[in-house]
């Protein structure tokens, strides 16, 4: 895991149901050119991706490639 620079500005999705009894949300920063950082709101741990990796992931997610089976 890389050290995440201070220049990242993290945002939480409006779909997140963050509340004091269950504060688990994923936060994403896309303000640094060529890089995307993803952070856990609970642990603060972060993972960094290139914009190409992030775009490929989002494309797969929108196509349902990561949907959980019922």
TrEMBL record:
Q: Which InterPro entries match?
A: DUF397 (IPR007278)
- Superkingdom of source: Bacteria
Task: Name one matching Pfam family.
Answer: DUF397
Domain DUF397 residue range list: 10-62
- What is the name listed in the Swiss-Prot or TrEMBL entry for this protein? DUF397 domain-containing protein
